[in-house]
């Protein structure tokens, strides 16, 4: 018997009716095993679905803090830990810091943030806003210079300010710089844009990341919502029902089926969507033939 397919809107309505941490679709409730991936540089395992905060928690007010608290509760309840933010995502760091402090959540989360430059003042501002001295992953944001150095980030890591360091970009024009810095500096992580309809990273960044043993975080896994717009009103294909209970899981599991991907970090301010995304941590992943079908499906949209 096939698991009923629910839309993201239907899931949100149901979650809102009974509470984000209480509502769980059958696929989540019946499959306790979580997909985790090893961070290549250490072997530490990380749940493979996290939370992005760009344009989600950027206003420091009570409404946003309540929204963030509900989403973080859903993340933790569903087995997730990773939260990715930045010094330039409005007030997102401050919102996260306040919610973490109020809920005593810091030790339950893997916090990744980003700096625009290796600047001590910017780092201290992030630590203050996040209300934590130690950051799990500190990333050099939007690397555009192929000669960019990670020396200061490595020094901060050696001093115990952060546990891991990384570089990021969500622009194909910056891929040459990312490739140069990744190969030369060998950070613990690289974060790039990668989605079912934007697969350039498969050819350029993922092979190099695997070669130097860097973890990969995938930003924009829904293609800035392009994928959801493209499938609006459509049913999930019958051949995908064995591994996906929603379109969100369909799109995320395409990425997670590549073992080089350490974690996907879709952004959301909705606890129902957060729980639905975490469904990608459970159940089978598409096999290579199914991934090819997914590519053909996406290319035909």
Task: Itemize the secondary structure elements and their pairings.
Layout: H1 8-18, H2 26-29, E1 36-38, E2 45-47, E3 51-52, H3 62-77, E4 82-84, H4 92-103, E5 110-115, H5 120-130, E6 135-140, H6 151-158, E7 162-169, H7 175-185, E8 189-193, H8 200-212, E9 215-219, H9 226-230, H10 247-256, E10 263-264, H11 271-278, H12 288-300
Helix pairs in contact: 1-11, 3-4, 3-11, 4-5, 7-8
General description of the model:
The chain has 301 residues and is α/β, with parallel strands linked by helices. It has a single domain (46-300), classed as Alpha-Beta Barrel (TIM Barrel), CATH 3.20.20.100. Helices cover 41% and strands 14% of the residues. Strand 4, helix 4 (92-103) and strand 5 (110-115) form a beta-alpha-beta unit. The protein is globular and about 50 Å long. The relative contact order is 0.17.
Largest sheet at a glance?
8 strands, parallel
Quickly count the helices: 12
What is the mean predicted local confidence, pLDDT? 91
Strand order of the largest sheet: 3-4-5-6-7-8-9-10
Order of helices and strands: HHEEEHEHEHEHEHEHEHHEHH
CATH topology (fold) name: TIM Barrel
Can you tell me the CATH architecture? Alpha-Beta Barrel
- Given as residue ranges, the uncertain stretches (5+ residues, pLDDT < 50) are 1-31
Classification by helices and strands: alpha/beta
Q: Kindly provide the name of the CATH class.
A: Alpha Beta
Give the total of domains. Answer: 1
Task: Supply Rg.
Answer: 18 Å
Annotation, overall tally of beta strands: 10
Distance between the termini: 28 Å
Fraction of residues in β-strands: 5-15%
Helix content: 40-55%
- General form: globular
* CATH homologous superfamily annotation: NADP-dependent oxidoreductase domain
């Amino acid at each position: 018997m096939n698991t009923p397919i629910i839309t993201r809107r239907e899931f949100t309505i149901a979650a809102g009716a009974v509470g984000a941490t209480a509502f769980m679709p059958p696929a989540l409730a019946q499959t306790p095993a979580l997909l985790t991936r090893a961070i290549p540089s250490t072997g530490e395992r990380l749940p493979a679905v996290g939370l992005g905060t760009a344009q989600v928690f950027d206003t420091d007010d009570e409404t946003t803090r309540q929204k963030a608290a509900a989403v973080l509760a859903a993340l933790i309840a569903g087995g997730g830990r990773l939260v990715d933010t930045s010094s330039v995502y409005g007030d997102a760091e401050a919102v996260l810091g306040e919610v973490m402090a109020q809920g005593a959540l810091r030790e339950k989360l893997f916090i990744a943030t980003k700096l625009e430059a290796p600047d001590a003042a910017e780092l201290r501002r992030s630590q203050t806003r996040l209300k934590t001295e130690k950051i799990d992953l500190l990333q050099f944001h939007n690397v555009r210079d192929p000669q960019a150095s990670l020396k200061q980030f490595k020094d901060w890591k050696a001093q115990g300010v952060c546990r891991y360091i990384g570089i990021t970009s969500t622009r194909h024009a910056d891929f040459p710089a990312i490739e140069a810095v990744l190969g030369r500096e060998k950070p613990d992580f690289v974060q790039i844009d990668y989605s079912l309809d934007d697969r350039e990273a498969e050819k350029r960044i993922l092979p190099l990341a695997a070669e130097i043993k860097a973890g990969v975080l995938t930003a924009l896994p829904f293609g800035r919502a392009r994928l959801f717009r493209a499938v609006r009103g459509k049913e999930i294909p019958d051949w995908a029902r064995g591994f996906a209970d929603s379109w969100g899981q369909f799109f995320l599991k395409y990425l997670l089926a590549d073992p080089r991907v350490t974690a996907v970090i879709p952004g959301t301010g909705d606890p129902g969507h957060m729980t639905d995304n975490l469904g990608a941590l459970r159940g089978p992943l598409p096999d290579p033939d199914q991934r090819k079908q997914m590519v053909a499906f996406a290319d035909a949209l």
